[in-house]
Amino acid sequence: MRHDRLETMTKGWFVGDFAPTALRSEACEVAIKHYAEGDHEASHMHKVATEITAIVSGRVRMLGAEWGPGDILTIEPGEATDFLALTDVVTVVVKTPSAPDDKYVL
Q1: Which residues have C-beta within 8 Å of that of residue 14, sequence separation ≥ 6?
Q2: What would the pLDDT profile of 39-78 be if each residue is shown by its tens digit?
Q3: 40, CA 20 to 30 Å: which among 5, 64, 80, 82?
Q4: Is residue 50 a contact partner of residue 95, using CB atoms and an 8 Å limit?
Q5: Is-contact 35 43, C-beta < 8 A?
Q6: Nearest CA to 11 among 41, 37, 38?
Q7: 3-state secondary structure the chain
Q8: The pTM is what?
């Protein structure tokens, strides 16, 4: 058995082809991300990976629309998105494949 803590991972990413990680994998990346109201990420895209974001709690603005708990957004390679936390937010994010250098800020 091995024990890790989410707060020791980088920005909530705990599975993927990077360190630190709870599970090293080239197949995918997984994160649990916590945002405070007003937190944002600049518009970006991935050339290789598909990114799936599940909103667990709170409300966000992504892809020009507002989303909330239960919404799952699949962003294909080449599709741009930005992110704004309209409230405190928790998300689960999966990227496949794991491609640590595949984020392009627009």
Answers
A1: 4, 6, 21, 22, 23, 30, 31, 32
A2: 999 999 999 999 999 999 999 999 999 999 999 999 999 9
A3: 5
A4: yes
A5: no
A6: 41
A7: CCCCCHHHCECCEEEECCCCCCEECCCCEEEEEEECCCCEEEEEECCCCEEEEEEEECCEEECCEEECCCCEEEECCCCCEEEEECCCEEEEEEEECCCCCCCEEC
A8: 0.94
